[in-house]
Recover the amino acids of this structure.
């Protein structure tokens, strides 16, 4: 806990912005409202070649940024009409993978544990994850259930919760009143209405894909506590016992510090915490009618069926 | 409780002087008695029609051929007629053999025929046209009915659509509207709340909740089996005006253009005079009117869960399929 | 947010009918998913694939006081079987009368026509109807789907005692059921000009270990010229029930 607070203070100090008191919303609390983006090239976990290095120097950061942006650029060395070209799908213009590391130049979004890596899974979780991966490897195109939640247009990690950077459309909008806060994520037009009035969570038999969120203010930080996950959306191996705590603090006119703590003792051998400074975005939020335009799913499955017929012949 | 009686008495005293206008329906040669009796009022001021009423009578809708020129029977003629009819329809007879017995279905105990003619011994319930008969159908209506009859003849047991709406437990023809006596359970209950008159027919637990506030009928594309009723008071007569029929529950050949007008006048503590006019120019060559008294009964309405106990329809169809297999 | 229990809203006094009683006349409807499942339930896929999302089950917080229906062990087993076979067994599928209290929270409006001696409730669903006798009608002469209702006033609340219910109706689409020992006491309490609180106490010693209650607001229809329309569903289920007996059976 002390470690987290230390990191928190470090981050706050590192953010190059005027330390003004945040503007207040009509409900009297700091105004978190606006359209935000969490795109960043800092990865969730510390890359292996940076093991042991908690922060980059400004020079290293510049080099790193150039390297990553270059590496991510799908239009580099892209020969038209090859299988690789098709497999790469979108051109670079569609992606929104960030251009900068986080302002603290930390080498991972994970701030705890100190090694910047997701803690080990419990044996049960390992087994579960392994079995799922094995199944999917063998049955990858059997049906919609074997495709990713994103491909199925069900849940995107950009919205979560927790909200993680994704390949594109990393935008979300916050609205707040005295009684609730709404986090409206562009992917996939998901609005989490978070009551602030202290009402209890849903009964334990009611499970939801994105859990059940309740919020409250701790001084200038909005704390959102989410339980009742069904486990069908698994965050790197999490299960239905996940208890997620998110914290939102406006640290400058253009930055929101977003932190989340993952506590899931049946899945992870210890809790872990992530911090992402989130920056103001221009907006507006556009409609992402994923399912309504989901040709990909039909084509993936139809293509697999066609390929099977071909091999059968 | 006491205050309610006081209100009733007060209302009657206030209304006591003279008969009410509009009490004598037009087009009638003779009515039961010129209305001298004034109905009490419900708490919100409507003439009181409340209670459970029933309408079985041996007077037929149409004047029988044997009475072609007679509008009313004498007492003796009436007595003879009643005796003859009761003998003829008696389903407790055991003449005719087994099939006839089965076809007679319910024993007399179940039936609710009534045991007399209407009080004024008119030879038909129809009061207009004067010949006491339903006016001729239009050519289109005749064609439509003939086609339907021919289809049913061929397909009577092919599926549920070949059976009557009553056998299908969808709607009970005698409950209409208009409301006429049926083989049994002729009870109806009238409940008057503020701004509404509700008519609950025991068959088949069907309620018409009739608004009195002068609102228009529903949009013309909304058609209902029992139409869409609107009510208003003309003096002591409740006039119910019904349109938007779907035509599915055809009354004697009526179609979706039926405009039905019903009139309810309480003429004594025990009797509501019920009159209806059928106006359906694409089905009948002229409008026609019938009148039948509703008599108060102390019975309560019971639940007629027709569909929930509809073994008959299942058995009719299954029987037809079995008979086909046999061939 | 649910209207709080009676005690808190005892302060509201509804306008009176001419005979001095709270005026419950009007067209009302529940706005919840109790008809899907009285207990709290998450959303789930429907039973008929071709209906897609239109046949899927919406979620609901539940309307049972205390959350769970207190089934006796044998009855709990039967409920499980009912649930597993609900597409075949739910009487609503066959357009059977809904019974009490289910009629109240069907997803259809109902109209109350209130007089001193009789309160008639006309339900749009299947033209179901109940006559609540306010004049001590005595015991039920026979069992029926909609029961035998005797009503009286307790201050601002209409209390209806329902007996004579047969055992053939369900409480919801999730297989919650009862025996013919069912005894229901309903309480209708206006809490505002357009909201009425509805509470039903369910007692059936053959099925449940103790009496239990459901609670929900009923909302008045305020649109101009609101009226019930026909929902004569018997016709809509003929193919389902008799299709196999047709001369030319449908597939």
């Amino acid at each position: 806990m002390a470690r987290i607070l230390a990191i928190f203070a470090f981050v706050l100090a590192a953010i190059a912005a005027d330390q003004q008191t945040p503007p207040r919303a009509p409900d009297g609390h700091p105004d978190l409202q606006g359209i935000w983006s969490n795109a960043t090239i800092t990865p969730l976990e510390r890359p292996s070649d940076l093991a042991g290095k908690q922060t980059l120097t400004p020079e290293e950061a510049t080099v790193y940024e150039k390297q990553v942006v270059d590496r991510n650029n799908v239009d580099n060395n892209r020969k038209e009409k090859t299988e690789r070209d098709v497999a790469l799908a979108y051109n670079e213009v569609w992606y929104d993978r960030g251009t900068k590391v986080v302002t603290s130049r930390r080498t991972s979004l994970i701030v705890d544990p100190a090694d910047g890596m997701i803690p080990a899974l419990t044996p049960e979780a390992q087994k579960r994850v392994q079995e799922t991966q094995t199944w999917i490897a063998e049955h990858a195109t059997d049906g919609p259930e074997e495709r990713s939640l994103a491909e199925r247009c069900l849940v995107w990690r950009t919205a979560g919760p927790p909200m993680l950077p994704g390949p594109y459309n990393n935008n979300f909008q916050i609205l707040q009143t005295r009684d609730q806060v709404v986090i409206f994520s562009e992917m996939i037009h998901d609005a989490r209405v978070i009551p602030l009035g202290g009402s209890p969570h849903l009964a334990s038999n009611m499970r939801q894909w994105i859990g059940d969120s309740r919020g409250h203010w701790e001084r200038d930080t909005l704390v959102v506590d989410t339980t009742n996950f069904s486990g069908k959306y698994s965050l790197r191996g999490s299960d239905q016992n996940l208890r997620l705590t998110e914290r939102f603090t406006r640290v400058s006119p253009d930055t929101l510090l977003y932190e989340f703590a993952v506590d899931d003792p049946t899945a992870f051998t210890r809790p872990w915490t992530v911090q992402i400074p989130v920056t103001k975005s221009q907006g507006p939020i556009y409609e992402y009618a994923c399912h309504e335009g989901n040709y990909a799913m039909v084509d993936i499955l139809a293509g697999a069926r066609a390929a099977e017929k071909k091999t059968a012949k | 409780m006491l205050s309610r009686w006081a209100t009733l008495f007060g209302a009657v005293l206030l209304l006591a002087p003279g008969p009410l206008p509009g009490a004598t329906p037009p087009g009638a040669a003779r009515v039961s008695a010129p209305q001298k009796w004034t109905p009490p009022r419900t708490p919100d001021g409507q003439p009181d029609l409340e209670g459970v009423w029933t309408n079985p009578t041996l007077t037929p809708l149409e004047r029988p051929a044997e009475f072609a020129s007679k509008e009313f029977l004498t007492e003796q003629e009436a007595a003879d007629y009643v005796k003859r009819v009761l003998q003829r329809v008696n389903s407790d007879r055991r003449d005719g053999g087994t099939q006839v017995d089965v076809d007679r279905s319910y024993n007399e105990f179940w039936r609710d025929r009534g045991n007399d003619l209407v009080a004024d011994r008119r030879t038909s319930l129809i009061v207009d046209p004067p010949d006491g008969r339903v006016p001729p159908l239009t050519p289109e209506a005749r064609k439509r009915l003939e086609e339907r009859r021919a289809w049913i003849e061929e397909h009577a047991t092919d599926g549920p659509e070949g059976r009557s709406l009553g056998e299908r437990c969808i709607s009970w023809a005698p409950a209409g509207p208009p409301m006429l006596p049926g083989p049994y359970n002729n009870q109806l209950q009238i409940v008057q709340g503020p701004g509404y008159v509700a008519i609950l027919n025991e068959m088949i637990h069907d309620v018409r909740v009739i608004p009195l506030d002068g609102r228009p009928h529903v949009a013309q594309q909304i058609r209902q089996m029992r139409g869409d009723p609107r009510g208003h008071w003309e003096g002591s007569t409740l006039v119910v005006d019904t349109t938007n029929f779907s035509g599915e529950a055809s009354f004697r050949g009526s179609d979706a253009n039926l405009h039905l007008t019903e009139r309810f006048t309480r003429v004594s503590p025990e009797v509501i005079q019920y009159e209806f006019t059928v106006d359906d120019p694409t089905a009948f060559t002229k409008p026609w009117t019938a009148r039948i008294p509703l008599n108060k009964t102390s019975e309560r309405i019971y639940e007629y869960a027709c569909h929930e106990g509809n073994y008959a329809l299942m058995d009719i169809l299954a029987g037809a399929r079995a008979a086909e297999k046999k061939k | 947010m649910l209207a709080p229990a009676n005690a808190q809203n005892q302060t509201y006094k509804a306008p009176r009918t001419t005979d001095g009683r709270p005026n419950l006349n009007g067209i009302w409807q529940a706005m919840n998913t109790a008809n899907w499942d009285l207990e709290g339930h998450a959303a789930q896929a429907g039973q008929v694939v071709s209906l897609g999302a239109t046949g899927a089950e919406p979620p609901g917080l539940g309307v049972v006081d205390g959350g769970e229906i207190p089934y006796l062990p044998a009855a709990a087993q039967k409920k499980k079987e009912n649930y597993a076979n609900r597409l075949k067994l739910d009487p609503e599928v066959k357009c059977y009368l809904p019974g009490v209290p289910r009629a109240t929270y069907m997803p259809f409006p109902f109209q109350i026509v209130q007089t001193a001696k009789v309160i008639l409730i006309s339900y749009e669903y299947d033209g179901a109807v109940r006559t609540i006798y306010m004049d001590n009608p005595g015991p039920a002469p026979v069992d029926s789907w909609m029961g035998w209702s005797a009503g009286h006033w307790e201050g601002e609340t209409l209390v209806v005692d329902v007996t004579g219910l047969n055992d053939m109706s369900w409480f919801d689409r999730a297989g919650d059921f009862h025996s013919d020992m069912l005894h229901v006491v309903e309480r209708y309490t206006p809490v505002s000009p357009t909201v009425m609180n509805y509470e039903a106490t369910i007692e059936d010693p053959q099925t449940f270990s103790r009496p239990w209650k459901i609670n929900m607001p009923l909302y008045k229809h305020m649109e101009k010229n609101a009226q019930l329309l026909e929902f004569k569903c018997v016709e809509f289920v003929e193919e389902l029930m008799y299709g196999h007996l047709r001369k030319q059976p449908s597939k």
Summary: Chain B is about 20% helix and 20% strand. The CA atoms of residues 67 and 123 of chain B lie 7 Å apart.
